[in-house]
Every structure is written in structure tokens, then in C-alpha cells.
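1st attempt posting a full record on here, be nice pls
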Amino acid sequence: MRVPRFLHRMWCHFRIGYFTYLTFLLGCAATLVTVYYLGNKVYAVSFRCFSSFLTVCPCGFLVGVPFSVLIGRMHLKGVALWRAEMDTAVEANPYLYKVYPGTG
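the predicted structure (as C-alpha cells):
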């Protein structure tokens, strides 16, 4: 039985939406909840500014977003890491090859 092209496209869109965006948002929420719960409830490291979950969220984003940008930049600028990742991607799928401006 041949699966219609439409179903293949929907499956591809589902994978991208779920694995890239939905799990990203759920991971952020789970991290914030875990940090708040462990910090304030279990280990009793209660600070006055973190008395509610609504104060933890903005502080988490103020620290987490710049830190994540820094880590992402280090990943992409770490020439050996990026080159190895691209080599692996091209080996897995030779049609993924990209010519960067000024190199070819």
C-alpha cells in the first residue's frame, strides 16, 4: 500500500513541530518548576525574591536566555565542533552539502 504524499508531509511537520518546538517549551517549563520546587520546598533555600513561582520565571529567563545564547555561539564558533558536526551530517546525507559564501 502506498502512503499518500500528504501523510508524509504531515508526518514531517509533526516531527519538526513536536521535537523542535513543543519539547523545547516543555523542557523550559519543567526546568523552571524543578528549580523552584527543589530550591524553595525541598532544600529550603528560600529567598525573599523567590517566594513565588511567578518571580522565578522572569529571573530564570534573564539568566537562562543569555547563557543559552552564549553556549550556542560557542558551539557554532568552535570550529572543530561545527566542522565535525557538518562532516557527520554530510556523510549521513550527501544532498545536505552546503557551499558557504567565499568557499566555492
